[in-house]
Amino acid sequence: MGKVGFTVAAAAAVVTCAVAVTVVSKRVKSRRKWRKVVGVLREFEEICGTPLSRLKQIVDAMAVEMHAGLASEGGSKLKMLLTFVDKLPTGSERGVYYALDLGGTNFRVLRVQLGGRRSSIVRQDVERKPIPEHLMTSSSEELFDFIAKSLKEFVEKETDEDSSVSSVKKRELGFTFSFPVKQTSVSSGILMKWTKGFSIRDMVGKDVCDCLQQALSRQGLDMHVVSLVNDTVGTLALGHYNDEDTVAAVIIGTGTNACYYERADAIIKSQGFPSSTGFMVVNMEWGNFWSSHLPRTIYDIELDADSPNPNDQGFEKMISGMYLGEIARRVILRMSQESDIFGPISSSLVKPFILRTPLMSTMHEDDTPDLREVARILEEVLEIQDVPHKVRKLVVNICDVVTRRAARLAAAGIIGILKKIGRDGSGGIAGGRSKDTSSSKMRRAVVAVEGGLYSNYRMFREYLNEAVTEILGEELSSFVELMVTEDGSGIGAALLAASYSSEMEDT
Ligand code: BGC
Fold this sequence. Notes:
Elements: H1 3-47, H2 52-71, E1 81-82, E2 94-102, E3 106-115, E4 121-130, H3 140-157, H4 163-166, E5 171-177, E6 181-185, E7 188-191, H5 208-218, E8 223-229, H6 231-242, E9 246-252, E10 256-263, E11 279-283, H7 298-306, H8 314-319, H9 321-338, H10 357-364, H11 372-380, H12 389-420, E12 445-450, H13 452-456, H14 458-472, H15 474-477, E13 480-484, H16 488-499, H17 502-506
Parallel strand pairs: 2-5, 5-8, 9-12, 12-13
Antiparallel strand pairs: 1-11, 2-3, 3-4, 6-7, 9-10, 10-11
Helix pairs in contact: 1-9, 1-12, 2-12, 3-5, 6-16, 9-10, 9-12, 10-12, 12-14
The site of beta-D-glucopyranose has 18 residues, from α6 and β10.
């Protein structure tokens, strides 16, 4: 070989080597990046872990905190608010009642005609309206004027529609207001604080019914607010109207909370026990539950710190629809900061709350072979383009970890309530009733459940139901039924308006 030929061959070899080195080093780099993001996922997964042992600790903590909250005001982060609801609908309720339901993403106006038998809702008309976003942070007058105006329009439409409805002499109204309220009677109560992104300063400390009643008179509406209830209480009322074995109600939607009915002797509040029937529904405000056993990640800590209500509603921030998508977004953002597997960080990816939970559930439940929906949402919502298949799978994993933890924690909360009232087969907690752990003493216990997260998100529902069985075991869990109660919060308020209406009391 001549000198020139040798030089060319050597140069070619050098180039080939260089290319090979570049390819190898690219591969090494990309493997390293991949390992990094998988590391982020693994760490997240590990801290979010909810093995049975941890769930049982949370069950116990919930039952203990319920006791503490009932024993003294401020005794626990669980407010355990007395609702003054000491009778639940029995089926004897008859007539036409109205309800307003405010508290989540939508606002609802309802009219319910009751037939005088259990489970006999002769007719129900529901109108849903999204709450204009600016009203969530406006003034109490603006918010209540919007509510009263919507009710007026609803009532005005009925005049020619149906003579049985328009002939109602006295229009009585139940008001579902799904925020922490310190009730002073069944039809009055003071707003303690806002949750779920609402923040109307001039409203805190005011009587909610007064605000509504004043707005109704500003609209010239002659209607009387008979019952002021939390959405959990409305759901319990409808649950009990349909099935007498209903002992508690849980909302898992934009926010989360639970209520149950409690024996008089378990309530030792300083103000005494203002019930003549021996029991009262207690609004737990479980969204504010806290325990050191809760699996908290850096994403939860940062989400809380950036929220308008830091150190508040810790349980809610791990469980409810308002927050799950946001937790997932934060994990994706961390991965993007650690590596470029999602490409350059887009301006959308850094926007809080842009990944709403329904979008997250669509990605989680995407069953197309190439995870097309995941790619579409990443592109359209987070502006992340051309995501390879294995990265799409990673996103599905993130959604799975977030949702599984949320659903299992909610399940532990529910069993905690059953434990507190001695309906979990364990005989209650220390100081409770007998310690018989057999199923021989178990009775059917129904828990009414409402909220989009539970009813629309199949994976969430499956994880929750599975965890109930895991905690209680096959045999005992067969006594516990979770019953989806659609529109319960609003219909239940109308039912309670009927139970507490002056006409019913006169009969
Ligand atoms: C509120 C509760 C309500 C729950 C579900 C929470 O943010 O504090 O009062 O029941 O959301 O709507």
